Amino acid sequence: MLSRTTMKKSIHTKRPKLLIVEDDLLISKSIKTYFAKVNYVVKTVRSAEDARECLKSFTPSAMILDIALPQKNGLEFLKELRNSESWRHMPVIITTNLDAEENIHDAYLLSAAAYIVKSDLSLMDLVSKVTNHINISSYAQKTLS
Amino acid sequence: MFPWKKASRGIHLNIIFLILAIITPVILFIFYLSFTQLKKAEEAEINRLKSSAVLVSTEYSQIVEGVRQLLITLSISEQTVGPNCSSYLTGLLERYQRYSNISFANPSGDVLCSGVPLTKDVKVTDRLFFKSTISSKTFSVGEYSLGPVTNKPIITFGHPYLNAQGALLGVVYASIDLKWLGRLTQELEINTREEVLVLDWKGKALASYPDKVGLTGKIFPGSLNAGINKTIGFDGVEKIYVLEKIGTLKDGPLVAVGMTEADIHKGANDEFRKAILIAIIIGLFSIIIGYIIGSSIIKRIISEFDKIEELRRSFVTLASHQLRTPLTGIKYLSEILISESTGRLNVNQKEFVKDIQTSTHRLISMIGTLLNISKLELETPTLLIETVNISKIFNEERKSINMLLKRNKISFKFANKKSESIFVYADPKLIRQAVSILITNAAKYSDAESTVTVAILNKKNNSIVSVTNTGILIEQDELPHLFDKFFRGKGALKKNEEGSGLGLYLCKLIINVHKGNLVVSQKKNREITFTFSLPII
After folding, report:
1. pLDDT at B66
2. Nearest to B327 among A34, A68, A119 (CB)
3. Strands B254-260, B195-199: parallel, antiparallel or unpaired by DSSP?
């Protein structure tokens, strides 16, 4: 687990970019605030359709993708991402508050970087997880601005 | 948690048993009714025999009456004793085919006049009819005999001829031709299963239906008592005979109507067999219909329950999401506040935000517990069985209760070597939860400065895990209820009012779905041990 200062140090020159796909306003606001404090460039969208639109002009280093989205659900969107050349290797952290274990398998089958139950993990741990995955992803490293 | 799938086979069997239980008394009752009917039918057949006998005897009575009338007329007619009596009698004979002969004899028995011309002197002194008529001085009947004049088989009736002063002048008598009687008998409307015999008072056959050659004159082998007799007939077959007197003569002829018991039973048996067949058909039909209906009712009930289970399952999934989402919001925002990245907090504010976090954490934890319980209470809970390093889980969970242990200076001991890795087959998430509950309970309810001990014993197929601590006393009557849903012991309530009473219940559910058994035992020194087993690799 990285402390806040350590994290700030490692990324103060290159700011990682994060796209949060979450339809609950409270949650997306808190995640955005926290990641912004550790120098991330954060964009939030509320649906898979909006995410698709956003990706046309934004190249995130990583994505936090909720499963329970209006219309197309997160896992279906992840499949779409994995089928596209541009987004195939982007670290995607799947989040959920649902209690359906079959989602875990599906998530990992689609090469999710991590599977997180939101209510169980602290924001700090979320940040360290995302940062770790960005650090180990050659794809993500290229996106740092 | 009703095991519908397991129960399903049993339920189908039960439906069949239920139907059989209902049908059997009904069928037995039908049998019983049919059986009583059988008896009644037999009685009815015998009654029919009786009425047949009465009918036939009435017919013959009329013949006898006819003879009597004729003889009475002759007994007061001067023609009978006159010089032309023979031709007179011959004329009568030509008129009445039934008579073999009509004659007149003097008191000594010499035949003076005969419808059939005499070729020699004939005496009837020894004939029964003559003796009876002389002695009774009234209309009498004789027995089967061969006519003295005609030599034909006959039965003779006699009547005294008295003069104006009442002195006996002789006997006028008529003989019924048995051949004619035989022909008449065939024309009676008699049931083919009945045998009709006309017998004289000694039992000699006069006529029979069906007509049998050479039967006339033979003595009836059976009893001649009036009423119903079971006797062997002329053909050697045992029959039920109903005997009825013809007319009111002393020693007069009889009618015997007979039927074999088999024939008596036959009609009754046919009815009985029909009833049994109907009963069996109804029975089978009812079983099939009952089974079909019963099955479909049961299936419908089961599917209703399945629907409820399905609803519960989807509720569980949905509720988890709906409850956790706002709670996550609170959790994250509290975290942001306490990180002071949105501004410094004073001491009080920090404390309060921490309290919010504690409360939120309790809520999230409670929801998790409730949802896990709900999932495990489903008939077929989903388990993801893997090889799990149970000693590692204990070590990890021990870290989470560090604060709790430190606060009360409680020490935690592993009876096994720390490096020892023990692997079991289990669902890692669930086992972690069970372990967490057990050791958290141990820490929460232990006396200060006491020890919590965990021991894992490896047996051939199982791993026996035990968690021991010394703490609150649980009363004897409370011990068996420890794993009840929402149960809180008195001692536990005192030490920690906030407990939900769900921890041990969930623990037991978890161990149960792993086909293990969670038990508790308490020693006198308030040392309590929770033990369960898990299958080993």
Report:
1. 92
2. A119
3. antiparallel
- Domains recognised in chain A with CATH numbers: 16-143 (3.40.50.2300)
Residues of B with Cβ-Cβ distance to A102 under 8 angstroms: 382
CB pair distance less than 8 Å for A98 and B341: no
Helix orientation angle between B347-377 and B503-513, rounded to the nearest 10 degrees:
40
B492 phi-psi bin (left φ>0, alpha ψ -120 to 50, beta other): alpha
pLDDT for residue A92 = 93
Query: B227, exposed or middle or buried, with CB in 10 Å at 0-12, 13-18, 19+?
Result: exposed
Cα–chain center distance at B250: 59
Distances (CA, A) of A41 to A3, A55, B77, B246: 19, 14, 157, 133
Partner residues linked to B316 by β-bridges: none
* Residues in chain B, overall count: 537
Q: Which residues of chain B lie closer than 8 angstroms to A100, CB-CB?
A: 317
Q: What angle do CA B39, B41, B44 make, to 5 degrees?
A: 115
CA distance A36 to A19: 12
Is any Cβ of chain B less than 8 angstroms from the Cβ of A118? Answer: yes
Distance from CA of A67 to the nearest CA of B (A): 11
**pLDDT confidence of residue B8:** 66
Average pLDDT, 10 consecutive residues per value, chain B (537 residues): 62 78 82 79 81 88 92 89 87 90 91 88 89 91 85 90 88 90 83 84 86 82 83 84 86 87 76 79 84 83 83 78 90 91 90 92 85 81 85 88 86 79 86 91 88 87 89 86 87 78 91 90 88 83
Q: So what's the pLDDT on residue A126? A: 92
> What are the sequence ranges of the domains in chain B?
312-375, 383-535
Could you tell me how many CB contacts below 8 A there are between chain A and chain B?
69
Q: How far is Cα of residue B392 from the mean position of the Cα atoms in its chain? A: 63
Residue A145 pLDDT greater than 70, yes or no: no
Tell me what pLDDT residue A106 has. Answer: 85
- CA-nearest residue of chain B to A120? B364
Nearest-by-CA chain B residue for A35: B336
Please check whether residue B517 is in contact with residue B511, taking contact to mean a CB–CB distance below 8 angstroms.
Answer: yes
Residue A1 has pLDDT above 70, yes or no: no
**Domain B383-535 classification at class level:** alpha beta
Report CA dihedral (A19, A25, A28, A32) to the nearest 10 degrees: 90
What average pLDDT does range A96-117 have in this prediction? 83
Answer whether B328 sits within 8 Å of A97, measured CB to CB: yes
Which value does ipTM take for this structure? Answer: 0.83
- More confidently predicted of A2 and B228: B228
Q: Is the pTM of this model over 0.80?
A: no
Q: Which residue of A has its CA nearest to B384?
A: A101
To the nearest whole Å, the CA of A20 is away from the closest chain B CA by: 15
Q: Which residues in chain B are contacts of A69 at CB distance < 8 A?
A: none
